[in-house]
Amino acid sequence: MSEHVGYVVKIAELSPHSNADRLQIATIFGASVIVGLDVKVGDIGVYFPIDLQLSEEYCAQNNLVRKKDENGNNIGGYLDPDKRNIRAMKLRGEKSEGLYMPLESLAYTGETKFEVGDKIEMLNGHEICRKYIPKSNIRQGHVSEGNRTRKKSVPLAPLFAEHADTEQLAYNLGAFKEKDLIEITLKMHGTSGRTGYLPKFQGYKRTFWDKIFRREGTPIYDWGYVTGTRRVVLNDFDDGGYYGNNAFRAPHAKFFEGKLRKGETVYYEIVGFTDTGAPIMPSVSNSKISDKEFSKQYGKTTVFSYGCEPPQSACYVYRMTITNEDGDVTEYPPDYLRYRCEQMGANCVPLLFRGIIPDNCGGWASPGNYVKEMAEMFYDGPDPIGKTHVREGVVIRIVNRPKFCAYKHKNFSFKVLEGLAKDLAAEPDMEEREELIGEEAQDI
Fold it and tell me: Going by DSSP bridges, is the β-strand pair 23-28/181-187 parallel, antiparallel, or unpaired?
């Protein structure tokens, strides 16, 4: 099951809406969610976070999409009938991050037994929700074949690990413990990249019998540099890909050639613009936010430039590993990552905080709540690199875990921008695009 699910929750906190007598605000996973007056403390229902797409069937059963009667009056809900996506928004001046529905909304599936904490995605063969990715916006063209050679299902670089998924902080507060060492780094809104110095496919060794029977033979691997996006291994930088070509990735990949040691893989974010001058991530008109102060601070349009001018781009490392020939992966601690980046002359994602979760959680109810409060000291405001646009948020890493363990936390303004980009038919987030590529180009 993916993390893009609904959650069975119990309403623990309600507060009045400041500008609507028939609405109130529920606090769910630390987020504000606008609900009706019929919702009471102690009620159990299902919470759908932003970035989900509800199924057609669920929306039809609960009259959630917009539709009009013969007189042109809306007799349905507020969701777009085609997109059916949930996004962050302000409703009469109050923030809302998600949708709360009663458990009765699931009755048509035949499922009646739910417990608080259950995750809802499929019920008795009925799809309820999925991650929202506007597939209609995907650029057509060559789709990379992933970690395979072009002719056969032979791994191009079998030890080249994909990016580790970073889950949402709000749903994983229980992952933190007292005395955990944490680092909070800037989350950057760009496209993922990875480069490794690893065993790479070089061709085939053909015996006499292979030639007689016209067999390709045994794959030969030798140490070489390999580069990829989040999920896909690139054979070249010339064609295909989400942007039409991957030429803007080439200088960042080549930067690491001759600098990585055998077995090292570096994971990084590329921000700014492509070689054609197009922004790597979609720009959004700030007027759509309906927040005068936001527009006053950041201008008419949000362009995620990170200090770059078209057609420039920049690369920021956030993770490094070393893999032996048996495929065992060792994670570099953040301090050693920064040391290796200093040796190579590479940029690291900015470090905003480093510290140990104190005993008794510093007075907070739990280690997770302490971490959330610390994260929210840094997750909003002008981006420290771009300065002309809002930051996306932060990533919180638990340093003392043997495997990469990190969680993301985005601010409300960015969530609104991200939702608007999709609703206005802008290009989807590159990492979301690659989730679709991952369905078509899995390793064999």
Answer: unpaired
